[in-house]
């Protein structure tokens, strides 16, 4: 047997994908990653998704290691196979082709932080492969280097840059967590691809401005993208942070999508987060559902989520609804919330949430994942398309991740993007995905945004709608054995 029984159960959603399989999962478990970054808090999403994927040997150098002991216990509870150790800068720079414990499996290096920190160490590095992710407020530049020539060229570009190291004091520090979280899930995906040699590595710089939704990876213009890091379009201020602390956001589903959405919203200080789910934690959830842990297997997901989120931010009120969502209670549940985030995995549930939000005039943020692909959109009643405009006559629940699998960090980036969309809606800043559809192909690392037109023949929001009330749906958010949520 390639893997132990518990490993098979934990990573089943990976193993059933032919691109990974049992042998690929074993290779991930035998790999190691050296991580260099700013702080425990900002790197925790990356560390959780690496552990969720099965890359369990991690050697971390933090510029600020406050909170490491707490992270150590949380990550070990999430996956007790994880070996995580603190190292200093010299150990990060000097390591070569074996990890600190002498193992010779695949060794990967990740930098995730701001430009000033990267410039501090880039010329000291003489190893590859390396994933470099620079995040500044809402912006990310990510590039993968598989040889030293390209890495040295990049280092030369940085050496010629004059960087303003002054911190913008109007930007709330906790909001750095949004870009750091998206960066962490992207880096985790790249790590899996590099380890298993699947898909296309991001050898050109990917530039992603989460606030303006500007995405560019077609040109090798790293110096141009670096300059754009310091543009201050759509700036969020401390006043906007106060709006977030006063708002209430409901997340439907505490699984693969709801976990990262709730994690990010708690990190940035949203005042109230409601979570509804009627499932319990299973070991097969833990390749992607980072709110949960081994010690909470059998516990209701909403209570498990509440424990995790209270630890992340005790000032955020977490309201747990351990119940199925259906046409009898959906209107009452959503009425007191400012935004609804959908983290469910079947068509009936999506129709129900969409219809209820339409009649209640509540903005809804929708995402979906399958295998290596994800989609995301924002729906604002009477201002653009609804879910039925996109999927007008879909029947049944379609394929699920229980049948086809999904790479754990893929719902991570979709859930973090749902959180980012909610923040933009609450603050009124930036460009949302209203009338747009974001599509993510993790294997080829493509992020594309397409225009979505409102359908005049839509049965809910069209010119002559057939649906006048929230229709009855059975067994919503009660998928005991189908946990792509």
What are the SSEs and their pairings?
Blueprint: H1 5-10, H2 12-15, H3 21-29, E1 32-39, H4 40-53, E2 57-64, H5 68-78, E3 83-86, H6 89-94, E4 107-113, H7 115-121, E5 130-136, E6 139-145, H8 148-159, H9 176-196, E7 206-209, E8 214-216, H10 222-228, H11 238-246, E9 248-252, H12 258-268, E10 272-277, H13 301-312, E11 317-322, H14 330-334, E12 339-342, H15 347-360, E13 364-370, E14 373-379, H16 387-390, H17 401-404, H18 409-427, E15 436-441, E16 446-451
InterPro entries: ThiF/MoeB/HesA, ThiF_NAD_FAD-bd, Ubiquitin-activating_enz
Family: Belongs to the HesA/MoeB/ThiF family.
GO molecular function: nucleotidyltransferase activity; sulfotransferase activity; thiosulfate-cyanide sulfurtransferase activity; ubiquitin-like modifier activating enzyme activity
In words, what does this structure look like?
The protein folds into 2 domains: 198 residues, NAD(P)-binding Rossmann-like Domain (Rossmann fold, 3-Layer(aba) Sandwich); 214 residues, Rossmann fold. It has 18 helices and 16 strands. It is α/β, with parallel strands linked by helices and 485 residues long. The C terminus is likely disordered.
Biggest pleated sheet: 8 strands, mixed
Q: What is the distance, rounded to the nearest whole angstrom, between the alpha carbons of the first and last residues? A: 30 Å
Mean pLDDT: 89
CATH class of the largest domain: Alpha Beta
| Secondary-structure arrangement, i.e. CATH architecture of the largest domain | 3-Layer(aba) Sandwich
* Gross geometry: globular
Proportion of strand residues: 15-25%
Poorly predicted ranges (pLDDT <50, ≥5 residues)?
Answer: 478-485
Q: Please, how many helices?
A: 18
Taking Cα atoms only, what radius of gyration do you get, to the nearest Å?
A: 21 Å
Strand order across the biggest sheet? 3-2-1-4-5-6-7-8
CATH fourth-tier homologous superfamily of the largest domain:
NAD(P)-binding Rossmann-like Domain
- The CATH topology of the largest domain turns out to be Rossmann fold
Q: Count the E strands.
A: 16
Structural class: alpha/beta
Instruction: Indicate the percent of residues in helices.
Output: 25-40%
Tally of distinct domains: 2
């Amino acid at each position: 047997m390639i893997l132990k029984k518990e490993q098979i159960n934990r990573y089943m959603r990976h193993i059933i994908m032919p691109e990974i399989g049992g042998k690929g999962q074993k290779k991930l478990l035998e790999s190691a990653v050296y991580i260099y970054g700013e702080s425990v808090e900002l790197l925790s999403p990356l560390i959780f998704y690496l552990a969720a994927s099965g890359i369990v040997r991690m050697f971390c150098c933090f510029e600020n290691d406050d909170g490491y002991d707490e992270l150590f216990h949380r990550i070990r509870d999430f996956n007790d196979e994880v070996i995580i150790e603190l190292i200093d800068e010299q150990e990060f720079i000097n390591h070569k082709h074996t990890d600190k414990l002498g193992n010779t499996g695949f060794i990967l290096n990740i930098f995730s932080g701001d430009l000033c920190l990267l410039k501090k160490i880039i010329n000291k590095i003489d190893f590859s492969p390396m994933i470099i992710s620079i995040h500044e407020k809402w912006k990310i530049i990510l590039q993968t280097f598989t040889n030293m020539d390209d890495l040295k060229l990049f280092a030369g570009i940085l050496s010629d840059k004059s960087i303003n190291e002054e911190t913008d004091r109007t930007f709330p520090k906790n909001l750095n967590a949004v870009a750091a979280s998206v960066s962490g899930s992207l880096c985790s995906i790249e790590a899996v691809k590099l380890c298993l040699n699947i898909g296309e590595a991001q050898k050109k710089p990917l530039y992603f401005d989460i606030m303006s939704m500007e995405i560019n990876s077609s040109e090798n213009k790293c110096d141009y993208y670096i300059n754009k890091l310091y543009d201050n379009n759509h700036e969020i201020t401390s006043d906007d942070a106060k709006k977030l602390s006063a708002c209430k956001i409901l997340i439907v589903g505490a699984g693969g999508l709801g976990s990262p959405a709730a994690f990010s919203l708690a990190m940035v200080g949203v005042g109230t987060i409601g979570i509804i789910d009627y499932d319990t934690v299973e070991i097969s959830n833990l390749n992607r559902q980072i709110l949960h842990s081994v010690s909470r297997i059998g516990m209701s997901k909403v209570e498990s989520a509440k424990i995790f989120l209270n630890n992340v931010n005790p000032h955020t009120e977490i309201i747990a609804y351990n119940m199925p969502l259906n046409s009898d209670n959906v209107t009452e549940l959503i009425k007191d919330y400012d935004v609804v985030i959908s983290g469910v995995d079947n068509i009936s549930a999506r129709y129900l949430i969409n219809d209820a939000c339409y009649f209640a005039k509540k903005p809804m943020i929708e995402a979906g994942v399958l295998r290596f692909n994800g989609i995301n959109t924002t729906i604002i009643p009477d201002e653009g398309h609804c879910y039925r405009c996109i999927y007008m006559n879909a029947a049944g629940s379609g394929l699920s991740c229980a049948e086809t699998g999904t790479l754990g960090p893929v719902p991570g980036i979709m859930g973090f993007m749902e959180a980012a969309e909610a923040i933009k809606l609450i603050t009124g800043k930036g460009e949302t995905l209203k009338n747009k559809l974001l599509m993510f192909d993790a294997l080829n690392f493509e992020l594309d945004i397409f225009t979505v037109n409102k359908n005049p023949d839509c049965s809910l929001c069209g010119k002559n709608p057939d649906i006048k009330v929230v229709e009855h749906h059975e067994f919503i958010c009660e998928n005991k054995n189908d946990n792509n949520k």
